[in-house]
Predict the structure.
Amino acid sequence: MTPIVAIVGRPNVGKSTLFNRLLGKRVAIVSDIPGTTRDRIFADGVIEGRPFTLVDTGGLEPEPSTAIAARVRSQAEMAIEEADIIIFLLDVTDGLIPADIEIAERLRRSNKPVIAAVNKTDNENLEAGTGEFYRLGIDRVIPISALHGRGIANLREALALLIPRVMTTEKLDDKAEIPKLAIVGRPGVGKSTLLNRILGRERVIVGDSPGTTRDAVNTVLRYQKQDVMLIDTGGLRRRGRIEAGIEYYSVIRALRAISQCHVALLTIDASKLVTAQDIHVARYVVEARKGVIVVANKWDLVPEERREEYRRSIEQRFKFLAFAPIIFASALTGYGVSKVMATAIDVCRQRSTKLPDETVSAIIMKAYTEHPPLRRGTGSLEVYDAHQEGINPPTFIIQVNEPELVHFSYRRYLENSLRRFFAFTGTPLAMIFRKSSRKTSRGVRQV
């Protein structure tokens, strides 16, 4: 198993900055506001050929002042339990304070290897102040500046001594091949509750107020003898309503999660019907040509006598997602949730289907022969041939005389002809019309 390295410490000591610095890329949200990181954030890294999983955590407060702060502490405590190695991050500008001593005591009881990284030692004068941190009784005390990169090489060297060299032919990017499911939607629709229900335990913080989740949180679980990655994301708003700062980066990560996933679990609040924001998020997914399943959450809040009305309204509002399954569920009670994973795996399978070229050609040419396109202006669209070029998403090349003559209604007609042969449930199709110099089409083949 790849060793887990957790970064822990008080709020606002620079944990997310160090997380990004060790990975060499911006993964965690960074701001000057204490408590920006709430959930545990995971990412894979390599030091001197040694793979590891790095975990960013929210701040450990000895006496949390709010319910959210208490749950952040609980998440950080869980990260300590899961970790193989711990980086205890301290702030040289604050000096050694009682809260640091209390955290050190907690880490000592964990019996895990601990490196004390004293952050914000931006120059030699500040580095001289690290001596007092040896009072914590931690053997490895390393002055660093996560912001400027000072001392990071020493920290990486200390980590390399603790991380065993894993002799394996498995590559870190093998996870790219497993199905990735992103739970997306506007704020407050129950995305984190859905993730926790699927996992059967609290993996992310769930709060009553919208916007509790800010980062995209990845969890790999075993489902029907295969690994599946679930990605919980912060809520997506319309561009004009996105606030600056933390929410801006949260939205960027949600959009990145959509771009990296295979299937998006588009979660809506069924008790409030479909909103313009729900439609907007759905269009993000379709534009990215990702698989999509509509999860109508909070179905338990819809009165029995109004469910048929709500069902028809949801189907009508998502008419442009006619290919997408709609699952009526309650993440709170568990109703319908068992269908979500099974349907998502099926959508992944259908996105990976490759039809034989002769089959695609026969379907398209038959559709063209039976219903030729209407003449537009002085030109007339001619279809010569077709084949499937790729998967994820299923991509079809259709050879025509003039691509600009393809009307969106005829594009939809040809797409529906393909779906009648093979449903491609839950996934948009990429239809590329390519100019060809061929003057005659192939004969129609039987499907």
In short: DSSP finds twelve helices and 15 strands in the chain. Confidence is low (pLDDT under 50) at residues 36-40, 166-176, 238-250, 440-447.
